[in-house]
Amino acid sequence: MKYLSLFICVFIFVSCSPSEQELFDAGVENLESGNHSKAVEYFDRAIEKNPENTSAHNAKGVAYFNMEQYDEAIASFNASIAVDSASYKPFYNRGNAYLEKEEYVKALQDYNYASSLDPGVIDIYYNRGVTLLAMEEFEDAILDFEMTLQANPEHGQAFFYKGKAEMENNQPLEAIESLSRAVKIDTRNGAAFYLLGITQLSALAMKDEGCRNLQSALQLGFTEAKEWIEEFCGEE
Question: Which Pfam families match (predicted)?
């Protein structure tokens, strides 16, 4: 009986110990529900069971990213890449962390590599476009936003950033077209109304249209529009 009792206790202990997959799944569940710190705990426990669980390292990095702990996120993505460098996901995710840190060259390198691993992932082109825009590489940024829009013609933010890049690249007609599409898709985008209004006023002297869009921007809380309205739009 003594040996039988010991066997039963050991069996119960083992059966109650969650597996690596169960820990990973619990981490994903917490990640998806917004319990990011709890998710990290589960991913750490999964990694303790298998230090080469590249998915757990990557998901842990996503949890840290969502908590805006970008250095910790990068460390986790590095660990995922060290185990398996064939997946685009940790490179893409690490690029996002570098973008948030405004380390644009590193972000661009990661997006380029992620794209080489899986050129069909459209989010890579959009985020790389944002990076290139920040680097003032306007023509390349426009190309990436065009790639994004080919796949998703209703991507309002891609139209917005494309218009911004075109405006900076001295393409006012193209900028107006892109920004007009942006505000049609997202009528709450005050920044797009603002850029559209100032482009219409400054580049083409379209006073009525420009002032109307600036008023929309101001109504949406984009206070930068007020100065333009006061100077160019009179009582409108």
Answer: TPR_11 (PF13414), TPR_16 (PF13432)
Average pLDDT value for residue range 34-53: 95
Q: Would you state the pLDDT for residue 2?
A: 42
Angle at 145 between CA 139 and CA 148, to 5 degrees: 150
User: Confidence band (pLDDT; 50, 70, 90) for 234?
Assistant: confident
What CA–CA distance (Å, rounded) separates 236 from 234? 6
Residue that the structure tokens 């790389």 belong to: 128
Q: How many CA atoms lie within 13 A of 209 on its CB side?
A: 15
Total residue length of the chain: 236
Tokens 């589960």 found at: 42
Average per-residue pLDDT for the chain: 92
- Give the residue among 182, 181, 163 at the shortest CA–CA distance from 171: 163
- CATH of 17-101, picked from 3.40.1110.10, 1.25.40.10, 1.10.10.60, 1.10.10.10, is 1.25.40.10
